[in-house]
């Protein structure tokens, strides 16, 4: 299963590092490019609820393979567009594959977590982070050697090959019953006397999934904001050089990957809710340090703390949403999380224009505190 997460992260990063080349190819202004990039989000958000129903009907494992195959096939397409509308059209398809893969993969991962009886979801998401680092690193190193079309085609072929190999193994393994459907089955087989109780349980389950989705939203708000604003903050506000500013985001990404690799061990040792609580407060403290520190070493240390703190919040929230609501729970929490990643960068930009970028970045700390406290409400449900 980790291979699917790694391919997902690699393919998305492979596209991201060549966005400047594609922008020049279609002669897009910043505004036009922004509208085209919104098509990725539009495709993902529109697809997620549909994929959750497909997972319930056909099983999450075949839908995982199909979604990742669609993502791999769509990755090379932007390099063959020559207008902004055409780019937006292929990015809708790319977003559909990306959103579908994230719902299906996480639903399949929730089933595996249930089978194993251990909170291994952070390990799967560590695969995504590692794939993203590999895709970004290789894409950057080969930028002077391969054209955008050649690089994206190579990434797509690699994605298809890994999907085929890992998919064959996944589909041969015995299919698990989707998690989160037991209560529905019980309510359909029970009599009138149990109808009220099962309805109440279903309502509580929806509230639980919503709370977990809000945790994912707060976490993804920070991830999206940091991805777009780290280098700008280090360059403009802390007066770091270009290489040091780039290293700041790399340090954050490596810290997040490290945190996810150790996430399963921490979850077993401390419990998932405690890991989420400590992670949220660690991220908040790190963000305040990174945003307000006047010295480069302190700011870099802050971003490392943010990466470590945010690392396991999103995967554990998605895992618990899947356990409570099955594929529909994964879809709702993922959609909210994706919305947080979408709104984070522009909100920071608007606030920075109104106040300052360091002050705007402190909202990431506030969101991390909310993400830390929401698990307490989740525990009550």
Structure description:
By secondary structure, the chain is an all-alpha fold. It is built from 15 helices and no strands. The longest helix has 42 residues, at 195-236. 53% of the residues are buried. The model is unreliable at 181-201 (pLDDT under 50).
Q: How is the main sheet built?
A: none
Alpha plus pi helix count: 15
Cα-atom Rg, whole angstroms?
21 Å
Q: How confident overall, as mean pLDDT?
A: 85
Quaternary assembly: single chain
Helical/strand content category: mainly alpha
SSE succession: HHHHHHHHHHHHHHH
Q: Keywords, please?
A:
15 helices, single chain, mainly alpha, 86% helix, globular, 381 residues
Offer a quick outline of the entry.
The protein is mainly alpha-helical.
List the helices and strands and how they pair.
Blueprint: H1 2-16, H2 19-26, H3 30-58, H4 60-74, H5 84-116, H6 121-141, H7 148-172, H8 182-189, H9 195-236, H10 242-261, H11 263-270, H12 272-292, H13 296-310, H14 313-354, H15 357-380
Helix pairs in contact: 1-4, 1-5, 1-6, 1-7, 3-4, 3-5, 3-14, 4-5, 4-7, 5-14, 6-10, 8-9, 9-10, 9-13, 9-14, 9-15, 10-13, 11-12, 12-13, 12-15, 14-15
């Amino acid at each position: 299963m980790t291979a699917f997460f790694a391919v997902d992260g690699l393919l998305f990063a492979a596209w991201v590092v060549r966005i400047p080349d594609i922008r020049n190819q279609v002669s897009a202004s910043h505004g036009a490019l922004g509208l085209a990039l919104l098509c990725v989000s539009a495709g993902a958000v529109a697809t997620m609820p549909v994929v959750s129903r497909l997972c319930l009907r056909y099983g999450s494992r075949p839908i995982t393979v199909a979604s990742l195959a669609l993502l791999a096939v769509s990755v090379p397409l932007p390099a063959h567009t020559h207008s902004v509308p055409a780019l937006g059209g292929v990015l809708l398809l790319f977003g559909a594959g990306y959103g579908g893969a994230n719902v299906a993969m996480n639903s399949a991962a929730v089933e595996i977590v249930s089978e194993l009886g251990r909170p291994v979801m952070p390990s799967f998401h560590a695969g995504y982070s590692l794939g993203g680092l590999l895709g970004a690193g290789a894409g950057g190193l080969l930028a002077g050697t391969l054209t955008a079309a050649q690089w994206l085609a190579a990434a797509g072929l690699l994605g298809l090959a890994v999907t085929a190999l890992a998919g064959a193994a996944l589909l041969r393994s015995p299919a698990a019953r989707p998690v989160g459907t037991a209560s529905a089955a019980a309510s359909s087989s029970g009599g009138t006397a149990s109808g009220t109780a099962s309805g109440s349980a279903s309502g509580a389950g929806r509230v639980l999934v919503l709370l977990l989705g809000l945790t994912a939203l707060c976490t993804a708000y920070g991830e999206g904001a940091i991805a777009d604003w780290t280098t700008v903050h280090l360059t403009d506000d802390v007066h770091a050089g270009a290489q040091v500013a780039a290293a700041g985001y790399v340090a954050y990404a490596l810290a997040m990957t490290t945190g996810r690799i150790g996430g399963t061990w921490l979850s077993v040792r401390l419990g998932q809710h405690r890991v989420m609580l400590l992670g949220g407060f660690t991220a908040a403290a790190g963000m305040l340090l990174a945003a307000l520190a006047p010295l480069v070493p302190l700011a870099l240390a802050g971003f490392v703390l943010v990466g470590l703190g945010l690392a396991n919040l999103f995967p554990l929230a998605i895992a618990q949403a899947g356990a409570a609501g099955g594929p529909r729970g994964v879809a709702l929490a993922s959609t909210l999380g994706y919305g947080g990643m979408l709104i984070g960068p522009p909100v920071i930009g608007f606030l920075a224009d109104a106040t300052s970028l360091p002050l705007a970045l402190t909202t990431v700390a506030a969101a991390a505190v909310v993400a830390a406290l929401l698990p307490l409400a989740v525990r009550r449900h």
